[in-house]
Design goal:
88% of the residues lie in helices and 0% in strands. The protein has 132 residues and is mainly alpha-helical. Helix 2 packs antiparallel against helix 5 and helix 3 runs antiparallel to helix 4.
């Protein structure tokens, strides 16, 4: 959505409203990435995961997204947290709880990013409609 809004700005020209809206859309884009990681991490923490497991899960999530897009990261991150928590705590129940916490965090992150995406789209529509 951000790239489409930026492209629209180059095609339609940069009036004052367009500049303000692309700044707002850019800030929302950055916020969505931060919120995404915070909610997933918070879910894992609530589930009892260690910070090390969360960082390892994040690294595996990034690698999974690059190697097996678009769903590789969605599978790799919680699976890595589960495995590393199982190794760390030596209890499958604790590892499962951390896994479930991260998956719940994913769900909340999805809802947050969806809402932020709708807001970005509404701002872009405002930009398009003002130029018609």
């Amino acid at each position: 959505m951000w790239a489409a809004a930026l492209g629209y700005g180059f095609i339609s020209g940069w009036d004052t409203l367009g500049i303000v809206l692309i700044i707002l859309i850019s800030l929302l884009f950055a916020l969505s990435a931060v919120v995404d990681n915070l909610l997933m991490g918070a879910g894992a923490i609530k589930g009892g995961a260690s910070w090390l497991s969360i960082f390892i899960g994040l690294a595996f999530g990034i690698a999974g997204t690059i190697i097996f897009p678009p769903f590789g990261g969605l599978i790799a991150a919680p699976l890595a947290v589960f495995i590393f928590e199982w190794i760390r705590a030596r209890e499958i129940k604790k590892a499962w709880k951390a896994f479930v916490g991260m998956v719940v965090g994913y769900g909340l992150a999805y809802l947050a990013r969806f809402g932020i995406g709708v807001l970005m789209m509404l701002l872009w529509w405002l930009w398009v409609w003002q130029g018609v």
